[in-house]
Amino acid sequence: MPTDAKYANGLIRFAAIVAVVFGAVTIREGGSVLFGDGARSAGNIVHFVLYFNFLAGFAYIAAGIGLWLRARWSVWLALALALGTVGIFAAFGVHVAAGGAFAARTVWAMTLRSVVWILIALLAYGVLVRGDRHADWRN
Question: pLDDT tens digits for 20-37?
Fold first, then answer.
């Protein structure tokens, strides 16, 4: 396996681990607010953001597994997660601009989620879609 291929494979593996861990933490935290006593400490909850993020946590794990397996469908799932997250972030912005209550940590959390999924989607596309056109290093 060429050095570039090992590097790319390592990046995909790292992205897969980040996706699964991010998903597990998202499910745990969102579940605590939705089904536990986490709502008391959560501040001003924006429900559509909370529900999206909680459900997306399961998709994060699926995407991470797909990336680990180098499955091409995981590229499109990562892209959908990036676009969905940015879309929800935009809707959150409209909510805030309209005077809706929110917790400041939601801004930081959505910024982090957007950046992470945009980077994972770009990496996955570059390695699993574009990279496979130019080199055969799956073995």
Answer: 999 999 999 999 888 877
Euclidean distance between CA atoms 30 and 50, whole angstroms: 7
- pTM here is 0.87
* Single-letter amino acid code for the residue at 112: L
Q: Which candidate, 129, 123, 1, places its Cα nearest to that of 64? A: 123
Domain of residue 9 covers 3-134
- Determine the Cα–Cα distance for residues 36 and 30; give it in Å rounded to an integer: 9
Distance in angstroms (rounded) separating the CA atoms of residues 131 and 83: 22
Q: How many domains are contained in the chain?
A: 1
User: Structure tokens of 18?
Assistant: 């980040």
In a domain, residue 139? The reply is no
Q: Which of 35, 33, 73, 56 has the alpha carbon at shortest distance from 113? A: 56
Decide if 67 is inside a domain.
Answer: yes
Tally helices (H) and strands (E) across the chain.
Answer: 6, 0
